[in-house]
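STRUCTURE REQUEST FORM
Protein name: HTH lysR-type domain-containing protein
Source organism: Pseudooceanicola atlanticus
Requested output: structure tokens
Priority: standard
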Amino acid sequence: MRHLTTFRTIDEIARTGSIRAAAEILSQTPSAVQRRLQGYEDELGYPIFERTSKGVRLNTAGELVILHIRETLAETERLQSRIADLSGVRRGHVSIGCSQALAPYFLPREIARFQADSPNVTFSVEIMEHIDVARKLDSYEIDLGIVFDERSAPDYKVLMGVPQSLRAVMARDHPLAQYDMLRLRQCYQYRLILPFRWFGGRALIERALVGKTFVKPPVLEANSFEMLKAHVALSDAITFQIEIGVPGEAGGTGAGEGDLVSRPIDPRDVSSGMLFVGQKWERPLPVAVSRFSEQIIRELADRYGTIET
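Status: completed
Returned output:
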């Protein structure tokens, strides 16, 4: 399978945009990586990268080649996973693209559960927004997407979808913590810190605020929910998060998060969005990926009750 080594080398060059960076990741010399790339281009009869002052980038032929390479690597991984499964030792790799809301609690717990039974399966997780998931699934850069969207139809195969309501997150001693459910107007009586506008939860809020007279700008915006939660724990400010990403929702809290609580927003004020689990259309998944997706689907069904496919 010497061609697979070449394929992995070219894939790394494409991902990093640099022969030197790819060489460092692969623990090879830049000249060795360059020779392997040059040998492939000579066999193919076409260059697949454009050389620039900042590195390299795929040309039109390279875009076709990299898709073929990633398809081949994915099929090889699926074959290896099936062979390993026959021997009773489950191996493989699961690459996931997910919303930030799943990173602190839900996914770490589910990965730990899976690896307790299948310790030879490895994982990689990349935080991304729903707009990037279809592209990365299509290019074999990730196996599964688990992302929140404000209900727009995804451009990939949806394995399941569950509704997600919005919750206000605040310090435990916040005046609004005494209520079981909050109206949006109540929240806007306090300082607001919010994720940037391209986040799905922020889109729900912006839609709910159309025509409202109590609207005011946030005092802080960030692309990190960890920063937002840390800030509200130290102040009287409020932020928002979908229910799967709030402290305590997944059966535990992180460092310092015992000082945080969440309260649901009245559904009359803010509609729910959807959490989607999806894969590339018509792609047979490796055994490990398929088994993990089944675990995720069961857990979400048990927790939220509603399944939409």
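Reviewer notes: Confidence is low (pLDDT under 50) at residues 250-256. The first helix runs from residue 2 to 16.
Form closed.
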